[in-house]
Write a structure and sequence with these properties.
Distance between the termini: 46 Å
Largest sheet: 2 strands, antiparallel
Shape: globular
Number of helices: 10
Order of helices and strands: HEEHHHHHEEHHHH
Strand order of the largest sheet: 1-2
């Protein structure tokens, strides 16, 4: 399958690619996750079994949806690599296998009515968790290889290059933050009951949480920075898509330098958000109950991003006015 990269228009913004080359194994994985999502969505309204305070099918549902989006994103991104980047395509296949293994084991645990992560209560559960841990590490390594290939591939539009690469790097950070959950808590060490690791900080897993997501409403939750960081792969490039669409009506956004600077500002702000929610979780503070310090930090971050974007646009307009005057 071939690809034709987008070509600049005289107005300064880009048309979408006329052809897209996809990484097929990742698309197959995405289709599988779509089927699993549909099944889990129906099953959660039929089953009354709960695992750590959630319906037994909530975890497969949210993992399948997240993996679906993630697989489609990497399928497209790997399709943008130079034809000679075999390592990138191989990394995509490894990502496919690693994610499939993880979702298969998450689903198996749901079917058996137990938890998949951190479960070392029996030899079988220990083996399952060990395989998952290896697959997660392999997944991170494959993401690293794919990200490096993105940096080594020539992307014509500077703003798109910034969005794609920044999203990939932040996604790596988000994946790595998952390792914060794998250390046993002090309570688990003193009263071992077969679980070594936790999502929440300050209380045991299974307390009050947001529907389906399960994120704690009374304590810190390390799943949040893991999720927010991982999905920078989609959200940072999405910000660029918004700018490209807006460029059809807003003249200053037709300047690729302006778009690239705006994406850098958004990416920096997103990195700040990942740091903020990580700090909040490690302090044992619920995402829905921020204290004054967290609120001020969040407001400061938002203001800095908005002011940064305003400054970029102002410079772009001034430069445009100067060029027209000439």
């Amino acid at each position: 399958m071939s690809t034709t990269l987008a070509r600049p228009l005289s107005a300064g913004y880009l048309d979408p690619p006329t052809q897209v080359r996809w990484h097929r194994p990742l698309l197959v994985l995405a289709a599988t996750m779509a089927v699993l999502s549909g099944f889990a969505l129906v099953a959660r309204f039929v089953s009354t079994v709960e695992v750590t305070g959630l319906n037994q099918w909530d975890k497969p549902l949210k993992f399948a949806l997240s993996t679906l989006v993630y697989a489609v994103s990497w399928s497209w991104l790997i399709g943008q690599l130079d034809p000679g980047r075999r390592a990138g395509r191989a990394a995509g296949t490894v990502i496919t296998v690693a994610l499939f293994v993880e979702l298969a084991l998450v689903t198996w645990a749901a079917v058996t009515g137990t938890t998949s992560h951190f479960n070392v209560s029996t030899p079988l559960n220990t083996a399952v968790w060990s395989v998952m841990a290896v697959s997660i590490s392999v997944l991170w390594g494959a993401n690293l290889v794919a990200a490096v290939m993105l940096f080594r591939t020539r992307i014509e539009d500077r703003a798109r290059a910034v969005a794609i690469r920044a999203g990939a790097v932040l996604s790596l950070v988000g994946l790595a933050l998952g390792y914060l959950m794998t250390s046993p808590t002090a309570q688990q060490l003193s009263e071992f009951q077969g679980i070594a690791g936790a999502h929440t900080v300050g209380i045991a897993d299974g307390g009050p949480g947001l529907p389906v997501l399960g994120w704690s409403t009374v304590a810190g939750d390390l799943r949040i920075p893991h999720f927010v960081g991982m999905h920078a792969l989609q959200l940072v490039p999405l910000a660029l898509v918004v700018l490209e669409v807006a460029s059809r009506r807003v003249a200053v956004l037709r300047d690729v330098q302006v778009r690239a600077s705006l994406v850098r500002t958004v990416a920096a702000g997103y990195a700040g958000l990942v740091a903020l929610v990580t700090w909040q979780a490690l302090r044992g503070q619920s995402i829905v109950r921020p204290d004054g310090v967290t609120t001020v930090a969040g407001a400061t971050l938002a203001a800095a991003v908005l002011l940064g974007c305003a400054a970029v646009v102002a410079r772009g307009r001034a430069r445009r006015t100067t060029e027209v005057a000439r």
